[in-house]
Structures are given as C-alpha cells and as structure tokens.
Design goal:
Number of strands: 0
Distance between the termini: 32 Å
Largest sheet: none
Number of domains: 2
Radius of gyration: 17 Å
Low-confidence stretches: none
Oligomer: single chain
Strand content: under 5%
Length: 133
C-alpha cells in the first residue's frame, strides 16, 4: 500500500480548490481573476503531489514540449487577463499533454461505473478490440 505524505494531502486539497476555482471561473463567463487563481492553485497542487523535480520533468520532456508550451502559454494568457483565448490555448495544451492517459482513464471509468448506456458503448469499443488478440 502506498502511503500518502502530509504534503501530498495538502496538494490534493490545493488542487481540488484549483479545479473548483477553474470551474467557477468558467461558469461566471470566464472571469479572469478566478481562472488565474484556479490555474495557480492547480499547478501548485500538482507540484505538492508529485514534487518539484518530477513536475519539471513532466512538463519539459522533449516529446511533450508542444503540449507544455501551449498549456503554460495558456496559463500566462489567463494571467494577462485574456481569459477566453488563454483557456482555449490551455485546453489544447492539456489535451496534448495527457492524450496518452485518456484511453486508460476512459477504460477505468467505464469499467468502474455500470451505467446502462455507457456499458453499451464500452462493449461496442473495447470488447471487439480484446477479441482480436
């Protein structure tokens, strides 16, 4: 069993507040102050959870440079109060950074939650691929 340190617990809370402020900022028609605060809290929470060195390694890998550039560029645009353009750029960078993680997360969510329509989608996409092997 993996033990969670106190800094990681704090990081989870900070990251949760960051996601809350991001969602709240989007709901309030892209309020730039809430979005900037959410971005700062999200990135600092990520740093608390995985550490400063691993965060830097994640963002500055050679094959993830374009995603990091767009994500951090979007954060800086939000900080400069260009909230809509910044969130669009940041979202594109987020997709580029985490595109290898999305199929695994999608499979996990579909296997963990037994929702009738989603399980039909799961059976359509993932059962046919496993029968080919």
């Amino acid at each position: 069993m993996v033990e969670i340190t106190e800094l990681q617990k704090i990081g989870i809370g900070v990251m949760g507040f960051g996601l809350f402020f991001l969602l709240f900022g989007v709901l309030l028609y892209f309020d730039s102050v809430l979005l900037a605060f959410g971005n700062i809290l999200f990135l600092s929470g990520l740093t608390f959870i995985i550490g400063f060195r691993r965060t830097a390694k994640f963002f500055f890998q050679k094959h993830k440079f374009r995603g990091s550039f767009f994500f951090l560029g979007g954060v800086s645009l939000v900080l400069c109060r260009w909230s809509i353009i910044g969130m669009l750029v940041e979202s594109y960078g987020f997709i580029l950074l985490f595109r290898s993680f999305f199929p695994m997360a999608f499979k996990f969510v579909l296997s963990a939650v037994n929702i009738p329509y989603l399980s039909a989608v799961r059976m359509m996409f993932f059962s046919s691929s496993s029968s080919r092997v």
